Amino acid sequence: MSAPNCLRCLVRPSAGIPVSAPRTVSPLVTPFVLARTAPFSTTAANARPKKEAQGKSDGGGSSRGGKKLQLGKFKKEKVADRGRTPLPGERKAYRKRITLSNDNAIPVPWLTDLGPADLADPRSSGKVMALPEEVQDQLRASEAFKATQCWGMFRKPAVLVRKETTDLVNRMEDAVDKKETLRLVVTGDKVTGKSMMLLQAMTHAYLNNWIVIHVPEAQELTTACTDYAPIPNTDPVQYMQNVYVLKLIQAIKRANEKVLAKTYTMTAHPELPQNMPANSSLLALANVAKEAEGAWAVFQALWTELTAQGANRPPILLTLDGLAHVMKVSDYRAPSFDLIHSHDLALVRLFSDVLAGGGAKFPSGGAVLAATSRSNAPRAASMELALAQREAEQSNKEKEKTDVEVPKKDPFFRGYDDRVEAVLRSVQVLRLKGIDKLEARALMEYWAASGMLRAMVDEKTVTEKWTLAGSGVLGEMERAALLTMRV
Amino acid sequence: MPPRLNIWSACSALSTRARAFARLPQPGPAALARGLADNTTSRLPESTPGALPPSMLPESEPAVYSSSENETAINQLRMIEYGLSSLDPTVEGHKYGMPELPLPSQKHAKHRYDSVITQVTRLLMRDGKLAKAQRDMAIILNYLRTSPPPKLDPARPLLPGAPPASHLPLDPVLYLALAIDSVAPLVKMRGFKGLAGGGKSLDVPMPLRARQRRRTAFGWILDVVNKKKSKGSGRTMFPHRVAEEIVAVVEGRSGVWDKRTQVHKSGTGNRANLNHMAIKGMV
């Protein structure tokens, strides 16, 4: 038997009020009685006008009438003063900012600036050398420095010249002598200095007046975070990324200003928004890109000019960091809602064609380098396999034996990508490992001379840090010696 | 839909294997015999019964070694025979020398960091994540190393005997310890319930030990830090806020100094309470 009264509120429900009214009842047909509150239904409470409409007199949460006991006569209202909220992108900019010098660090007297021939000279391997001011600006313009590297601890940015560095730079020089293109992938374990190797290659290129085009983060191209649009009259359809390309052109312009000003166009470019007659400087051509709208056309014109056969062009260095991101299907969608392969993005295709050995030939030779990343890398099974195969083939070729087994495809795995394999079929692979103890010693002496390592650098300390760092892995040595609580 | 959520990619993930299995080295007889202690039948490789290893055969001559190292070893054995210790470390030498004794405190695994650093790191720790706190501490020290030398405020003097400001950034541990020790209060107020009459508690100043003083001071610093806003984003923000506050303390800008003054003032005000009849024996 149901109670005649509502037990909660002791309000007697009148017979005329339905127990629950449907919410969807339109106001036109609402019965008159529904205007009063029905105790068993939340509908009327929900239908109540919002607080803003009721005005501020209603007060806070409880709307209980009558007297209230007020403790403390003058109660301060808590105002959370949050100050100015950061603008969009401001916090990220603070996180990503790059400091290249520390005024507290002691200047190292024996530190010499890198000259144009130093990085190719085997005698300078195992030495720490400083980057010249001009090159610093160029590297900064092309975003070669990363926020995770320890640039901000020393008086001026300096790099350790490794054996691998001189090896790589000599290979680059050989290729330029033969007017060929060196195609090479730098790979290795975490924090072994892969990005730093790219930076050193770029330093060499800047010092020798090459033209450098650097893609600092390959993921920016393929994770669908920048605009894209199909390029008309392409089959299969390719996509341009105008905003990114504009940024890239500006970076190229700032970093290679001197060289571009001395290089002149071979043909006129009537297709550009601003007419470019023949024999105008490439800097002027790059300056045409003012807006994202026509950036891809400008970039194409620039690229055709740079790779124009028979012209007197400086050598070109094309580098990309984070190779795995461009060796997979991208996150972009075609109008049919299919995922777009990274190699269908025009800029990526331009790079991968050169890496594959097809595509444009550099008139005075040059190099195309890519570095893999271990911390931020999607699975790219084909890339990993191809690199392992190339490495095994390389070591067999060097020893003139076949003792290293070339890894084969897993027959039960479907995730391989033929296009990626085709690109990486004939690249060279440079695997980075830990540095040796002599190099470690040179590095630690530099740290100690800068006042950042407060310890005597002797064989014992060097061996200790070298061992702690997993046989001299560079980043781990920094962690063990510089980024520790025992300074 | 991200490709990961695709049902077909889930199927392919089942058979993901990028390269062939590494071949294990052929297990030797020792490896086979290992772990078979309760197995009564030996699984050592079959050998013809009664066949002895060649070295045990009577016709085999012991191989003659003649090298200088061998000579030395034989000489050493002879010396042992005569009761002399031939393997004296002072004679033989060590690759990296003997450790100095007594061992310096830093060589002890549990005391490898400065005592202030150890204590403060544990105060920084949240949710028992010591490794994260240690990384934060390393970032704090790094911030102190790279920030410009502090401009000292003569109204807020640091501990007597502190090095000049320009020396501080290159010794971040000292920088941090100096900041904490300089704002650390000397006393705390202990309330004795109901002794002041009328149910009021009697505040009596009590001296603090060095560790307690540091804990209080760093607690105040952390209070300020937790109310501060980060400038940027990412994992370096919390340690950067702490480091900024440390710099503010050394430069005399921090509100922590006021807290210290307040505690000291009430300590001076209440010092007469030490002579209270009920307290005398207790303190």
From TrEMBL, chain A:
List UniProt keywords, sorted A-Z.
Mitochondrion, Ribonucleoprotein, Ribosomal protein, Transit peptide
Q: Which GO terms describe its biological process?
A: mitochondrial translation
Location in or out of the cell? Mitochondrion
Give a yes or no for keyword S-adenosyl-L-methionine in this entry: no
- Region annotated Disordered sits at 43-91
A Pfam family cross-referenced in the UniProt record is DAP3
Name any one GO molecular function.
structural constituent of ribosome
The Basic and acidic residues compositionally biased stretches are 77-91
User: InterPro entries attached here?
Assistant: Ribosomal_mS29 (IPR019368), Ribosomal_mS29_fun (IPR017082)
Specify whether tRNA processing is a keyword of the entry: no
Q: Name one GO cellular component term.
A: mitochondrial small ribosomal subunit
The similarity annotation says: Belongs to the mitochondrion-specific ribosomal protein mS29 family.
Q: Which protein are we looking at?
A: Small ribosomal subunit protein mS29
Source species of the chain: Chaetomidium leptoderma
TrEMBL record, chain B:
- Region annotation Disordered: where it falls in the sequence: 37-69
Q: Which UniProt keywords apply?
A: Mitochondrion, Ribonucleoprotein, Ribosomal protein
Superkingdom of source = Eukaryota
Database matches in SUPFAM superfamilies: Ribosomal protein S7
One Pfam family name is Ribosomal_S7
Biological process GO annotation list?
translation
The primary location reported for this protein is: mitochondrion
Query: Cellular component GO terms, alphabetically?
Result: mitochondrion; ribonucleoprotein complex; ribosome
The residue ranges of the Small ribosomal subunit protein uS7 domain are 108-271
Compartment(s) of residence: Mitochondrion
| Role summary | Component of the mitochondrial ribosome (mitoribosome), a dedicated translation machinery responsible for the synthesis of mitochondrial genome-encoded proteins, including at least some of the essential transmembrane subunits of the mitochondrial respiratory chain. The mitoribosomes are attached to the mitochondrial inner membrane and translation products are cotranslationally integrated into the membrane.
Report the family membership. Belongs to the universal ribosomal protein uS7 family.
- Protein name as catalogued: Small ribosomal subunit protein uS7m
Organism listed in the record: Chaetomidium leptoderma
